Amino acid sequence: MDYTHLMVMASSLLLGLSIFFALYLFMDKRNRRYRIIRHLLAFILLAFALRIAKSVIYILFPEYASTLTSFGIVGMLAIGPLYWYYINAILVRLEINYWHLTPMLLVLMILPWLAHNGPFNIKHRILLFIYVFSLVHMLIYFVNGFWGIWKNRKSGHSGQYRKVQWVSKLTVSMLFIWIGFVMQAILKDRSFYILVTFGEALVFFGIAWVAMRNYGFIVKSTNRLLLGNLALKNIARNAITVLKKDKLYTKNDLSISILANKIGTNRHTLSIALNNFENKSFPELLNHFRIEYALQLLKDVNTNNLSIEAIAFESGFNSLSVFYSNFKKYNKLTPAEYRKKYSVIG
Q1: What percent of the chain has pLDDT over 70?
Q2: How open is the CA angle 320-275-257, to the nearest 5 degrees?
Q3: CA quadruple 346, 247, 288, 91: dihedral positive or negative?
Q4: What angle do helix axes 65-91 and 158-186 make, rounded to 10 degrees?
Q5: Confidence class for position 220, pLDDT limits 50, 70, 90
Q6: Spatial distance between the Cα atoms of 218 and 139, rounded to a whole number of angstroms
Q7: Pure H helices in the chain
Q8: Which of 198, 224, 250 is the last residue of a domain?
């Protein structure tokens, strides 16, 4: 028995163990509240298993390449949307828009027709085009996933931070497997193909293994889902109203705890509400309001006598350097340049 058979056997074993965990996610009935989130993770694992299993079977039965490629493409087109549903459910809120699955459903309708129509070279070109499309399709969802993770990285909630860590690891692992899919499409050497397939199965098993070890929180939604979208939305709106009232954001000792007390909630819930419905953390929102107020002062002819330092402290900043860095971040200009530019235009 050569190394080829050993790698195929090892890949099959790793796939089998991962599929077993996916089935466990379906069968677990301990908490029905999180059933959909468990099922989403299970579907992700099964979609990857379908695609990697295609590679394993292809090694053993290369004569069925066309049929196996079709099954693999279906799995790949399902991965992106399922991944998107899952990370949103666990980090933000459960929201499933089924139109994300449209490419997969279209391919499912096209493949039977393709199998029985047209010459082989035409079918091969169409399959190649769909395969490339499926790779781009997956990558788009991964990039959007990274952006969602980046926005939720500073929630201030320990449980949420663990979830961000988990989906970060999940995304990076899935990206490694995606690179394997690309390499399999480009390089035709059989030994290399087998090695890449084994690597995919190993990373895939790693995802399932980490998920099993952290089962207690990877299948639970964040508090945003438990509190309800409407309640959180109202908290975010109240926070904005209170901030604007009497220019509360200009108070240089304002903290998220003080604001939370004013609107009758706690700092963790307020942080979740702002990140979810304003797409900003509390410091980001506070700096936004302060910079907007500073812009008004710099443009107002009645405040031309105020120095830049005075405007910074009037806007609520404790440090001139912090004011300068935030101002330039928002406007790509220094306060002095902004004031000069406005006075020229005016």
Answers
A1: 84
A2: 65
A3: negative
A4: 160
A5: low
A6: 23
A7: 3-27, 35-60, 65-91, 102-116, 120-151, 158-186, 190-213, 215-218, 223-227, 229-244, 256-262, 267-277, 282-299, 308-314, 320-331, 335-345
A8: 224
Q: C-alpha dihedral over 225, 19, 108, 100, to 10 degrees?
A: 20
What is the number of residues in the chain?
Answer: 346
State the Cα–Cα distance between residues 138 and 81, nearest whole angstrom: 8
Distances (CA, A) of 184 to 17, 102, 181, 192, 197: 23, 26, 5, 8, 8
Q: How far apart are alpha carbons 229 and 273 in whole angstroms? A: 9
**Contacts of range 181-184, beta carbons closer than 8 Å, 24 or more positions apart:** 181/51, 181/76, 181/135, 181/138, 182/135, 184/55
Choose between 65 and 10: higher pLDDT.
10
Last residue of a domain, one of 172, 196, 224: 224
Collapse the DSSP code of 85 into the 3-class scheme (helix H, G, I; strand E, B; otherwise coil) and give the result.
helix
pLDDT at 345 over 50: no
Q: Identify the CA nearest to 46 among candidates 69, 68, 15, 73.
A: 15
Note whether 14 and 140 are same-domain residues.
yes
My answer on whether 175 and 274 are in the same domain is no
Which one is predicted more confidently, 24 or 122?
Answer: 24
- Compute the distance between CA of residue 34 and CA of residue 217 in angstroms, rounded to an integer: 10
pLDDT score for 156: 47
pTM metric for this prediction: 0.61
Q: What total of structural domains would you count in the chain?
A: 2
Same domain, 94 and 207: yes
- Domain range for 307 is 228-345
**Average pLDDT for 147-165:** 69
